[in-house]
Write a structure and sequence with these properties.
The chain is mostly helical. It has one domain: Sodium/glucose cotransporter (Up-down Bundle). About 70% of the residues lie in helices and about 0% in strands. It has a two-stranded antiparallel ribbon. α8 packs across α9 and α9 packs across α19. The longest helix is centred in the first third of the chain and has 51 residues.
Length: about 575
C-alpha cells in the first residue's frame, strides 16, 4: 500500500479506538467530568499525564527545533524535563491533598477570594488557549500532508474528534483516551528511531546511536553533522549561539511553566489518594523519559539525512516526499540563480569560486519529524504510524487544555462565583457547552497560529510561569500570603509577560533581535522575569495589607503535614 493508504489505516484505527473509549467512559456526573471520579489508578494516570504533557511540541516540534538549532535546542529538553521534576517535588502531592477540581479552585479557596478565583480563571483560559493553538496547528500539519487536505480542513477534522470525546466523556473519557494515545504516540516515535539507529549507527538503541558512528565510514555522527554544517555555512551543530543569560531564562521559564500548567496539575486530582499522586508522578516521568531521551537522536538522524538529500541536488530529481510537502506550503524552493540546483546554505556560506550564494530552500521546522521516515526511505507503514502518533500527541494535550477551559468557566466561574445554586445537571450541561465553544476557539487559533508549534508552546509556559507558579508555591509554603498579594502578583506577572511577547512578536516583530531585548532575554524566556515580578509584587503587597484569616493558616498546615499516604480531603462540587 502507498503512504496515503497506510495513513488512512493507522489514523482510522486510532480514531476508532479513541471514540470507542469515549463512549465506554461517558461522564455521568460533574465529578467524573472534572476529575474522572478520582478513581484512576497511578499507572494509568502516569500514562495519561505523559500523553497530556507530551504535546505536539514534544512529538512534532521539539526534535525539529533541536535539529535546526543544534546545541541551542537543548533548552527545551532541560526546561521541560526539569520542570516535571519540579512539579513532582513541590506541587503534585500538596495540591492533591488539598482536594479541588481545578487550579482556580485552589486559588479561590486558599486566598479566600472570588476575585482571586476569577483572576485565576482568566489566567487559566489565557494560558490554555495560547497552548492549544500550537496543538491544533500540529493537527493541521499532519492532516495537510498525510491526508492531502489543506491545513484548515485538517484542523476542522481534529476539532471534530476532540469535540466528540472531550464533550461526551469529560475528564473520565479524556483520561482513558490519553492512555491509548500514549501507547500510539510512543510506539510511533520509537519505531522510526530504532530503524534509523540501525541504519546510521549500527545499533537498535537510539540513545546510543546519537553518539555512535557511521558503520561504513567509522565517522561519528555528530562529527559528520558538524562538518556538513561548516561546509554549508551553518554554525556548527554542537556549538551554541544563544547567550548564557537567554539560555538560563528560557530553561527556567520552561521549568516553572511546566510546574504551573493547569492541564497537568489537574491530572493529580484524578487519583484516589495523595500517595497515588506521588506514584503517578514517578510513572509519568518514566514514560516521558522514553521520548525525551530519544529526541536528540531523532534530531541528529533527521538533520543528517536532510542535508545529504537536498544540498546541491537537482530540484527536478527530488523524491516524491519533497514535492508533496511543497504542496502544503511548508517547504518552499526559490531558484535564485536559475541553475536548477537546490542551494540549501547558511548565512556564512562561501562558494569555492567566491560567488555570493543565497539560500534557496525554506523548511518549516515543524515538519522534520513527520517527514523524517520518508526522507530516510523507511517503509510506508512507518510513515502512516508517525502520522497517527503526531495526531495522538496533539489531540491528547488539546483535550486536556480544553477541559481546563471548560472547568474554569462552568465550575470556577459559574458554580463557585456567579451561580452557586446551579444544579449538578445544569453544571454538567454548562461544562459541555463551554468545552464546545472552547473547541471552536481552539480551531480558529490552529488555523491562525502566532508562531510555529514549539514556539507557541514556549509562550504558554512563560505565561504559566508568570501567573500560576508563584501563587501556588506561596499558597502551599507560606501562611502569610493573602488575597491582595496573590491577585496583584498574578496580574503583574502575566501582564508583563504577555505585553513583552505581544510587543516583540506581533506589534514590532522587526525589533525581535537580541540587541533589542530587555537584558538580552528573548520572548520565550521572559516568563522567568514575569515570575520574579509576580513573587516580588505578591510579597510586597501582602506586607502592607491585612493578614489572612486564622483558618487559612490552619488550611496551609493541613496541606503541608506529611500524613500524605492516606485519603485526601474530599473533592466537592
Amino acid at each position: 500500500m502507498n503512504v496515503l493508504a497506510w495513513t488512512f489505516v493507522m489514523v482510522g484505527l486510532s480514531f476508532a479506538l479513541y471514540i470507542g473509549i469515549a463512549i465506554w467512559s461517558r461522564a455521568t456526573s460533574t465529578s467524573e467530568f472534572y476529575v474522572a471520579g478520582t478513581g484512576v489508578s497511578p499507572l494509568a494516570n502516569g500514562m495519561a499525564t505523559a500523553a497530556d504533557w507530551m504535546s505536539a511540541a514534544s512529538f512534532i516540534s521539539m526534535a525539529g527545533l533541536i535539529s535546526f538549532m543544534g546545541y541551542d535546542g537543548s533548552v527545551y529538553l532541560m526546561g521541560w524535563t526539569g520542570g516535571y521534576v519540579l512539579l513532582a517535588l513541590l506541587l503534585a502531592p500538596y495540591l492533591r491533598k488539598f482536594g479541588a477540581y481545578t487550579v482556580p479552585d485552589f486559588v479561590g479557596d486558599r486566598y479566600y477570594s472570588q476575585v482571586a478565583r476569577i483572576v485565576a480563571v482568566v489566567c487559566a483560559i489565557f494560558v490554555s488557549f495560547t497552548y492549544v493553538a500550537g496543538q491544533m496547528r500540529g493537527v493541521g500539519i499532519v492532516f495537510s500532508r498525510f491526508l492531502e487536505v489543506d491545513i484548515t480542513a485538517g484542523v476542522l477534522i481534529g476539532m471534530g474528534i476532540v469535540f466528540f470525546y472531550a464533550v461526551l466523556g469529560g475528564m473520565k473519557g479524556i483520561t482513558y483516551t490519553q492512555v491509548a494515545q500514549y501507547c500510539v504516540l510512543i510506539f510511533a516515535y520509537m519505531v522510526p528511531a530504532i530503524f534509523l539507529a540501525g541504519m546510521m549507527a549500527g545499533t537498535v538503541i537510539p540513545q546510543l546511536g546519537f553518539g555512535g558512528a557511521d558503520p561504513a565510514s567509522g565517522t561519528y555522527l555528530l562529527d559528520k553533522l558538524d562538518g556538513l554544517h561548516r561546509e554549508l555555512g551553518f554554525s556548527p551543530y554542537t556549538d551554541g549561539t544563544k547567550s548564557m543569560v537567554d539560555v538560563f531564562f528560557i530553561t527556567a521559564a520552561l521549568m516553572v511553566g511546566t510546574a504551573g500548567l493547569p492541564h497537568v496539575i489537574v491530572r493529580f486530582y484524578t487519583v484516589p489518594r495523595v500517595r497515588d499522586a506521588r506514584i503517578s508522578v514517578g510513572w509519568a516521568l518514566v514514560f516521558i523519559a522514553i521520548l525525551y531521551t530519544t529526541a536528540p537522536a531523532i534530531a541528529v538522524f533527521a538533520r543528517t539525512n536532510l542535508l545529504d538529500t537536498v544540498s546541491n541536488r537537482p530540484y527536478a530529481a527530488m523524491p516524491e516526499w519533497f514535492t508533496q510537502w511543497e504542496e502544503t506550503g511548508l517547504i518552499r524552493f526559490s531558484d535564485h540563480n536559475r541553475d536548477g540546483l537546490i542551494q540549501y546554505v547558511g548565512p556564512g556560506y562561501q562558494s569555492p569560486t567566491g560567488e555570493t550564494v543565497r539560500n534557496e530552500l525554506t523548511i518549516d521546522r515543524d515538519i522534520l519529524v513527520l517527514a523524517n521516515p520518508e526522507i530516510s526511505g523507511l517503509p510506508n507503514w512507518v510513515v502512516g504510524l508517525v502520522a497517527a502518533g503526531g495526531l495522538a500527541a496533539a489531540l491528547s494535550t488539546a483535550a486536556g487544555l480544553l477541559m481546563v477551559v471548560s472547568s474554569a468557566i462552568s465550575h470556577d466561574l459559574l458554580k463557585r462565583a456567579l451561580r452557586p445554586d446551579i444544579s449538578e445537571h445544569g453544571e454538567l450541561i454548562a461544562a459541555r457547552i463551554s468545552a464546545a465553544v472552547a473547541v471552536v476557539v481552539a480551531g480558529y487559533l490552529g488555523v491562525n497560529p502566532p508562531g510555529f508549534v514549539a514556539q507557541v508552546v514556549a509562550f504558554a509556559f512563560g505565561l504559566a510561569a508568570s501567573s500560576f507558579f508563584p501563587v501556588i508555591i506561596l499558597g502551599i509554603f507560606t501562611k502569610s500570603m493573602n488575597r491582595e498579594g496573590a491577585i496583584s502578583g498574578m496580574i503583574a506577572g502575566i501582564g508583563f509577560t504577555a505585553a513583552y511577547i505581544v510587543y516583540f512578536r506581533f506589534l514590532n516583530p522587526s525589533a525581535d533581535a537580541p540587541e533589542n531585548w530587555w537584558l538580552g532575554i528573548s520572548p520565550e524566556g521572559i516568563g522567568t522575569l514575569g515570575m520574579v515580578i509576580n513573587f516580588a509584587v505578591a510579597l510586597a503587597v501582602s506586607r502592607i495589607t491585612p493578614s489572612p484569616p486564622a483558618e487559612v493558616g490552619e488550611l496551609v498546615e493541613r496541606i503541608r503535614v506529611p500524613r500524605g499516604a492516606g485519603p485526601a480531603h474530599e473533592i466537592s462540587a
